[in-house]
TrEMBL record:
Protein name: 2-dehydro-3-deoxy-6-phosphogalactonate aldolase
GO MF annotation terms: 2-dehydro-3-deoxy-6-phosphogalactonate aldolase activity
Entry EC number(s): 4.1.2.21
Keyword Lyase applies: yes
Record text on subunit structure and interactions: Homotrimer.
CDD domains for the chain: KDPG_aldolase
Pathway per the UniProt entry: Carbohydrate acid metabolism
Family: Belongs to the KHG/KDPG aldolase family.
Taxonomic superkingdom: Bacteria
Keyword annotations: Carbohydrate metabolism, Lyase
Length: 206
């Protein structure tokens, strides 16, 4: 596994499209089934309210994050709502700096060694490998081979039950799981069943 001075990220649920009315029930199912963090993308309905509800209910046991964060002012608003982590689709130095200055964990999106090292120099230690389905496991291994040992790579995009074990075995410090665990309109019961299967795969893969 790629090393990190912080705890490895593990499984991160990406709840794109979630609403405040359902987020607590879905979040409870995810946590009870072994997911390690929950991300609410900012292009979801009323995302800051969903983040606030998750942080209030589960913040002491599970990190809560904002996703698709593109500007420093969004970092500040997410922090005020109770977020612990900030996830972006790109490598924006200002967003990383704002995240770190507020004591939160930064997950900038990277697709090349140049972007990865730019993110590391800005203070990030958990890098979102995106889109991972295009880069592949061999791409992750190539990038991780040249990064500092304390930096972890988190594949996002196309990670599901069919390939999660392969990503973990290849050294991923975690994985961002989107539609493979939650799609808008899914019930908490459906999410729980998928989360259980994914957590079992993650936990049983050396």
């Amino acid at each position: 596994m790629v090393g990190t001075s912080e705890a490895p990220s593990g499984l991160i649920a990406i709840l794109r499209g979630i609403t405040p009315g359902e987020v607590v029930e879905v979040g409870s199912a995810l946590i009870e089934e072994g997911f390690h963090a929950i991300e609410v993308p900012l292009n979801s309905p009323d995302p800051y309210r969903s983040i606030e509800l998750l942080a209030t209910r589960f913040g002491t046991v599970c990190p809560v994050g904002a996703g698709t964060v593109l500007r420093p002012e969004e970092v500040e608003r997410a922090c005020a709502a109770g977020a612990d982590i900030i996830v972006s689709p790109d490598t924006d130095i200002e967003v990383i700096a704002a995240t770190r200055s507020l004591g939160m964990r930064s997950y900038p999106g990277v697709a090349t060694p140049t972007e990865a090292f730019g993110a590391v120099r800005a203070g990030a230690r958990s890098l979102k490998l995106f889109p991972s389905e295009a880069l592949g496991i061999s791409g992750m291994r190539a990038v991780s081979a040249v990064l500092p040992a304390e930096v972890e790579l988190i594949p996002v995009g196309g990670v599901d039950e069919t390939n999660l074990a392969d990503w973990r075995a290849a050294g991923a410090g975690g994985a961002g799981i989107g539609t493979a665990v939650y799609r808008p309109g899914d019930s908490a019961r459906e999410v729980r069943a998928r989360a259980r299967r994914l957590s079992k795969i993650w936990a049983s893969t050396p």
